[in-house]
Amino acid sequence: MRSVYLMLPALLWASVALRAEVPSAIAIKDAHVVTVSGEDLPKATVILRDGLIQDVGANASIPPDAWVIDGAGLTVYPGFINALSTWGIPQPGPNRAVATAGNVPQQAAPATPAPNPAPRSHGPEDRPQTYSFERAADMVEPSDSRLEAVRAAGFTTSATFPNRGIVEGLGALIDLAGERGRDMVIAQPIGQQIEFRVGGGGMGRSFPSSLMGNIAYVRQLYLDLGQYKQAKETYVAHPNGNRRPEYDHDLEGLAESPRLLLPADECQQVDRILNFGRELKVPFVVYGLHEGYRRIDELKQANVPVLISLKWPERPKDADPNDIPNYRDLLMQEQAPAVPGMLAKAGVKFAFYSDGVDSAPDLKKALKKTVDAGLSRADAIRALTVNAAEIYGVGDRLGSIEKGKIANLVVTKGEAFDDKSTVEYVFVDGKEFQPSKEQQQPPQGGERRGTNPADEGDANGGVN
């Protein structure tokens, strides 16, 4: 009898290990498959192995070692891509109060001494608010609490950027799951984000504290970069007898970036940024675009990709009832969700970014709003998948359901963006996640809202 009791823990452990075992292959059988890259497949099978799509098609042969998911009544899409965010970079939490002996709450003492305040910047030579050398790839962690919430909306991938300063750092395309941060990185660097910060943000009156100062400063950085590259090329060609150029940490980050992300939400900003981007003579992407309905022709002619914020403009719920909004604000609130549909009809390549909308119900609501405003479902799916992948130069590995691509998928019951549709499965690098129904429903008594800590104390806070 005693030997039986001794065997029980071993049997229980073996049972747990068996249930936790990762299958060698997964087959989603007889589902509606939206490949994006080709025709929709009304009844097909998708086979995943070793984090990749091994096969897809109506006659795909299911391996004998595969775990099979009955796809009847389900739709399979490529995993959704957030084209600009800080997802994966853990956000700082609020300061916590601690009780003292006198029972008077005080702020907890910091674990390390506070750094000395940065010296006041007097001009571009001081390189203020420049973090071009920082890498999102070195900052991402699977511990970011937002990842589980956004996977419940079907997002598997994010173009993630650091979020401080004017020149914010080198972004990385990451998967929204992994054992370690390094496991999440798909490609880096994918670009350098610029955020014009006017006033606040601890800059005070130091340079550059105005919009024109921001623009002049970025222009100077790229003029410096041109001279820096030329000096290095000259030295490589003729090193003998010449002093080597001084290594510049800031300019090296700019030089490594394949593209620049420039902000423009209102129509006059679009005009300014299109001219500014051409002046810098580097590939660039425009993000924001809530008033893009007034500049569709200009955007088409410029032939640059754009990223549309899913944080649609709306009147604050706690606004003073006596504060009457102006006509332009009212028009933007009405027309902004229609911008993606207008861009699609004009043939402008665009993708979506979250902009602080960080929960499944809010993301779904924001996407449904633009579909209701005229964007076709097919174009909405393209904006969330292949368009975003191609904008960042990774269309050969993401954005569609094709053999050999990364196994990032979202499986829904009902069509995406329908009121009653639910996300049943999400696959990230072939790893299966099953979002709960609670994650996909707004909490009772109020609407869940994403927040952006960078917005606090900064008149033009960074993108989240």
SS-based class: alpha/beta
**What is the CA-based Rg, rounded?**
25 Å
| Strand proportion | 15-25%
> What gap, in angstroms, lies between the N and C termini?
61 Å
What is the fold's blueprint, element by element?
Elements: H1 2-20, E1 25-33, E2 41-49, E3 52-57, E4 66-70, E5 74-78, E6 80-85, E7 97-98, E8 106-107, H2 146-151, E9 155-160, E10 167-170, E11 172-175, H3 181-184, E12 185-187, E13 192-194, H4 211-237, H5 249-256, E14 260-264, H6 267-280, E15 284-288, H7 296-302, E16 306-309, H8 327-335, H9 339-346, E17 350-353, H10 360-372, H11 377-384, H12 386-391, E18 409-413, E19 422-428, E20 431-433
Parallel strand pairs: 1-4, 1-5, 6-9, 13-14, 14-15, 15-16, 16-17
Antiparallel strand pairs: 1-2, 2-3, 5-18, 7-8, 9-11, 10-13, 11-12, 18-19, 19-20
Helix pairs in contact: 4-5, 7-9
Note down, in words, how this protein is organized.
The protein has 464 residues and is an alpha/beta fold. The protein has a domain of 280 residues: TIM Barrel, CATH 3.20.20.140. 28% of the residues lie in helices and 21% in strands. The protein is built from 12 helices and 20 strands. β1 and β2 form a beta hairpin.
